[in-house]
Write a structure and sequence with these properties.
Elements: H1 15-36, H2 43-56, E1 60-64, H3 67-77, E2 85-89, H4 94-102, E3 106-110, H5 124-127, E4 132-136, H6 147-156, E5 160-164, E6 172-173, E7 176-177, E8 184-188, E9 202-206, H7 209-218, E10 223-225, E11 228-229, H8 241-251, H9 254-273, E12 289-290, E13 296-299, H10 303-312, H11 329-332, H12 342-350, E14 351-354, H13 362-377
Parallel strand pairs: 2-3, 2-4, 4-5, 5-8
Antiparallel strand pairs: 1-9, 6-7, 6-12, 8-9, 10-11, 13-14
Helix pairs in contact: 1-8, 2-8, 3-4, 3-7, 9-13
The structure holds pyridoxal-5'-phosphate.
């Protein structure tokens, strides 16, 4: 693994290094798919669904075409429709709110906590209305939302819980992996996620056999069996065999890769912490959270200048996200201009993600750490 030499530039992540580790295993599996002549919903998908559910300690998993569809299909399945409201955060990738709009429902944004960037459970009551049908907590950056308290609230008000686990593959709240608290856990295998395919892919986990069966129908346009449609009309959203083959190879390594992320994150935190900078807040983990560091996100009031400084040194520091969803023009047009989410808006001004991926070298991290130190010591 140490064959990689640092080029001086430090990327946000490096999937080529990852491929050097798993190339032969991928080629064997993908070749087998190509020779089988079966490309949609075959043995690789079946195997992946079984193993992914096992990994999660869930009864079922259903492979779909993307993480976005993994959020959309449960909403379709639950019959969420115009006139309904779904609670979520505006501090997420657009897909979370997009899925809610796609079914004609209204996203009701709840502000986030300062420390974890996840949904602030204390604010749920204020956003709840008689029209609220579901809640979609987002386990952002790899840090889980407080699922114990989300579930208490959801059960009390009979809300369906769809967890957005796109950035939190393998994360846990307490002893349980995220995605298994609510009715549905939605996962993305977009290439840059902790478990990435070589294209678009996603999955939904659920413990309910009826839901699993319905989701399988909905991903094939709603067909109960060959070209017969008796209930809801769905969409085309299948996980394909080649992506499933890639995921079958990578799933075995997910825990090890997550461990490598966690250890790289700990190294940043330890070394950056030594600078003792009042204007630099490092990621923290709430008690009960098992954080899988999809992103290592710091915050500082000097964000824009620090980002410039790092990028000039060849360090790819990223901003997730520069503009929260409720402030996007497309949402202003929908009348979201009135709402105020102070912590979400503050996060958009202060966050910066440092390069972090399982194969990152210590010397690369040292360069990042030195650069951050140099910036603040100027
Ligand atoms: C990546 C992501 C999604 C969407 O997943 P795709 O596979 O890209 O469709 C949804 N929510 C969050 C929080 C994400 O990071």
């Amino acid at each position: 693994m140490q064959t990689v030499k640092s080029s001086g530039k430090i990327p946000p992540l490096d999937l080529v290094r990852e491929y050097e580790e798993i190339g032969p295993a991928i080629q064997t599996r993908v070749d087998r798919v190509l020779r089988s002549g079966q490309f949609i919903l075959g043995k690789e998908v079946e195997e992946f669904e079984k193993r992914f559910a096992q990994f999660y300690g869930a009864k079922f998993s259903v492979g779909v075409a993307s993480g976005s569809d993994a959020l959309l299909l449960p909403l379709l399945e639950m019959g969420i429709q115009p006139g309904d409201e779904v609670m979520t955060t505006a501090w997420t990738f657009i897909a979370t709110a997009g899925a809610i709009l796609r079914v004609g429902a209204v996203p009701r944004f709840v502000d986030i906590e300062h420390s974890s960037f996840t949904i602030n459970v204390d604010l749920l009551e204020k956003v709840l209305t008689p029209k609220t049908r579901a809640i979609m907590p987002v386990h952002i950056y790899g840090h889980p939302a407080d699922m114990s308290r989300v579930m208490v609230f959801a059960r009390k008000h009979q809300l369906t819980v769809i967890e957005d686990c796109a950035q939190a593959l393998g994360a846990q709240w307490g002893e349980k992996r995220v995605g298994t608290f609510g009715e549905f856990g939605a996962f993305s295998f977009y290439p840059t996620k902790n478990l990435g395919a070589y294209g678009d892919a996603g999955a939904i986990v659920t413990n309910d056999e009826k839901f699993a069966k319905k989701l399988r129908e909905l991903r094939t346009h709603g067909a109960e069996r060959g070209y017969l449609y008796e209930d809801k009309i769905g969409i085309n959203s299948r996980l394909d065999e080649i992506q499933a083959a890639v995921l079958n190879v990578k799933l075995d390594r997910l825990s090890r890769w997550n461990d490598a992320r966690i250890s790289a994150a700990a190294y940043y935190t330890e070394r950056l912490g030594r600078f003792n900078l009042p204007n630099l807040i490092l990621p923290s983990e709430k008690s009960g959270a098992y954080h899988v560091y999809h992103l290592y996100t710091i915050r500082t009031k000097d964000r824009d200048k620090l980002a410039d400084f790092l990028n000039k040194r060849g360090i790819a520091a990223g901003i997730y996200y520069p503009l929260p969803i409720h402030r996007q023009k497309a949402f202003l047009k929908l009348g979201f201009g009135e709402i105020s989410l102070p912590e979400t808006e503050r996060a958009a001004r202060e966050v910066l993600s440092l390069p972090l991926f399982p194969q990152i070298l210590r010397e690369e991290q040292d360069s990042v750490i030195d650069a951050v130190g140099d910036y603040f010591k100027r």
